[in-house]
Structure formats: structure tokens, C-alpha cells
Design brief:
Blueprint: H1 3-16, H2 31-34, E1 46-47, E2 58-61, H3 65-68, E3 80-86, E4 91-94, E5 100-114, E6 117-122, E7 126-130, E8 135-149, H4 151-157, E9 169-171, H5 173-184, E10 195-198, E11 215-221, E12 225-231, E13 236-242, E14 248-253, E15 266-269, E16 275-278, E17 283-288, E18 294-300, H6 302-308, E19 314-315
Antiparallel strand pairs: 1-16, 2-3, 3-8, 4-8, 5-6, 5-7, 5-8, 7-9, 10-11, 11-18, 12-17, 12-19, 13-16, 13-18, 14-15, 14-17
The chain binds fe (ii) ion.
């Protein structure tokens, strides 16, 4: 039975107020054998840019629900990521029952309209919308967008958003690049664990995240540099914004070697317009063996983790 039909069945039972089998759902588990249930692990996965480079106007979902053991679409337990491919002069409607929706313009230009109004966008712009609004996207030139929202968490909880927790917020490419350049010029910037700007929002002064749920960083990986490992309990869904075709990559795995490098790592290649997942708790380092800077945009559920005090971010010094 799908989660939707399960929910409908339970809702119907509740509303009819018929006789309920109060004890039928009871289960007992011996503590030591059940205290740490083994849920399906968050997988490493790659969603190549070829998915959005051509074809008809459409939503291209990254659905890992089978691997996660979930009965509704999801890229991670809390988040759903997709590409939007919108051909010039065509429109695409998107809708999600979410508290936070993030859109990043991989390429192209156009306009998105929702109940909040309209936003004109072009390559490199990013915007976030609260609640599960329907959004109508129209491309003026062939466009691809990266779309991440938290509908899987709301489906798990069996809730729908009721109150917007932040205002629609637009991050223009020019402003983000200017902020990145300012950080790059700071003494010692190239030797930091990451060199980038955390995208913040006036609505989240405590978590300092792009929404109360989502977290995002625009991170420069300088030419011929590596960024040492770190780990956190949030899932990362990284969009490679720009990189040379080969020689830029992330090494990730659950453990470290004695010298602080990632033990027996998986290697995720950075290809412009490609997304890869980083499972929660895995150490990950970034490497650029080319002569050109690279740029990556990870999206995480770290707004929620930070609020819950469970992010547990740790760095190799
Ligand atoms: Fe990270």
C-alpha cells in the first residue's frame, strides 16, 4: 500500500470514529537488539548533467526511494532533488508540499511566477520559496534549474505546511560572486577547510542557514589546491557549478586514515552541471588538480540539524 493510501485509510478510520482495535498496533522489542535499528543507508549516487542537457521540457527527479526503503519519492530521507529542463518559450509547473523550496539556475534565463509574485532569473541566480506553493516557470532561453525541497520529510511526518517561515528570497549571481571575491582576498583564505559563502537569511539568525530547513554554501576550490576532510550529520546534495572536465573530484568515506586523509574513499568526479550525494557522517575532501578554479554548491538539510543541535560537524585540521 502506498503511503498516500495508507494515510487515506488511517484518516478515514479516524474520521468515522468506528470501533478501534486499540491494542492491535502494539509491538514490544528487546532493548539491546532493537535500540539501533538498521535502516537502509543513504547511498552515494551521481546525477549527470546529461540528464538536463537536452530533451523535452520536464522535471527530472532524483528518486532514491527504493534504495532508502521509502514508499514515496526522495533523494534523501528529508530532501527531494530534481533538475528542471525548460526549453525556450515553454513553461513548466512545479509543486511540492514543502516548507522550503530552493531553485538554482544552472543555465538559461526565464521567469518564475507563484502566489508571491514573479522573479526574473538567469544563469547563476538562486532563490528560495516558503511553503508548498505552485510555481510556474517560463524560459526565455533554453534553461536548466536545480530544485531541492523537503517534501519527503513532510510526507514522513504526515503534515502539510501551514505558515511561511521566511520570505521569498533571491540571491543574484553578481552579489554572490562579489562576496566570494571578498572572501578569497582575506589572508589565509586558500588554506581554510572550505573557501566560500554560506547563504543566509534574515529569518534564521540562530542557524544562519538559507532557510530554517535548508543549508547552502557556494564554495570555491582553487586551482591546484585541496580542501581537507570534514564530516557532518546532514546529507549533502552537491551541484558542481563549474570545473575542468577532469582532475577535480571529491574523496569520501566513513573513516579516516591516521594521516587525516579519507580511508578507502569513493571518488566523485566534478563535472559542470552534475549532482552527487554525500551520505551523512562521511568524511569528504575536495581536490583540484587543474589550473582553473572550480565551484560547487552543496544543498543540505543542515538547517534542521543545526536547530536540533545534531549537526556534529568536525574538521581535519
Ligand atoms: Fe561538507
Amino acid at each position: 500500500m502506498s503511503s498516500e493510501s495508507e494515510a487515506q485509510s488511517l484518516t478515514a478510520q479516524f474520521r468515522k470514529r468506528t470501533s478501534v482495535d486499540w491494542e492491535g498496533g502494539v509491538r514490544f522489542y528487546e532493548y539491546t537488539s532493537a535500540a539501533n535499528p538498521q535502516l537502509n543507508a543513504m547511498p552515494f549516487a551521481v546525477f549527470p548533467s546529461s540528464l538536463h542537457r537536452s530533451g523535452e521540457t520536464r522535471v527530472i527527479p532524483f528518486d532514491l526511494s527504493d534504495k532508502l526503503g521509502m514508499s514515496w519519492p526522495a533523494t534523501s530521507p528529508n530532501l527531494m532533488a530534481s533538475f528542471l529542463r525548460i526549453n525556450a518559450k515553454e513553461t513548466l509547473d512545479t509543486q511540492a508540499s514543502a516548507t522550503s523550496q530552493l531553485f538554482y539556475v544552472i543555465n538559461g534565463s526565464g521567469k518564475s511566477t507563484a502566489s508571491f509574485g514573479s522573479i526574473d532569473w538567469s544563469q547563476g541566480d538562486l532563490f528560495v520559496l516558503p511553503m508548498g506553493v505552485e510555481v510556474d516557470h517560463k524560459a526565455t532561453a533554453d534553461a536548466a534549474l536545480y530544485w531541492v525541497h523537503d517534501e519527503p520529510l513532510l510526507t514522513y511526518l504526515g503534515v502539510q505546511p501551514g505558515v511561511p517561515r521566511f520570505k521569498p528570497t533571491l540571491f543574484r549571481r553578481e552579489r554572490m560572486i562579489a562576496e566570494l571575491e571578498a572572501i578569497r582576498c582575506q589572508p589565509g583564505a586558500a588554506d581554510r577547510n572550505r573557501m566560500g559563502i554560506l547563504l543566509g537569511n534574515e529569518a534564521t539568525p540562530q542557524t544562519m542557514t538559507i532557510t530554517h530547513m535548508l543549508w547552502s554554501l557556494l564554495n570555491i576550490l582553487p586551482a591546484n589546491k585541496a580542501q581537507k576532510p570534514h564530516r557532518h550529520n546532514s546529507v549533502a546534495l552537491d551541484l558542481c557549478v563549474s570545473a575542468e572536465p577532469s582532475g577535480v573530484y571529491t574523496l569520501m568515506g566513513p573513516d579516516l586514515n591516521a594521516d587525516g586523509t579519507v580511508k578507502n574513499p569513493i571518488r566523485a568526479e566534478w563535472e559542470s552541471g552534475t549532482v552527487f550525494t554525500t551520505p551523512p557522517g562521511w568524511w569528504h575532501s575536495h581536490h583540484n588538480d587543474t589550473g582553473r578554479d572550480a565551484l560547487v554548491l552543496p544543498i543540505q538539510d543542515a538547517g534542521l540539524h543545526t536547530w536540533m543541535r545534531t549537526l556534529d560537524i568536525r574538521f581535519v585540521l
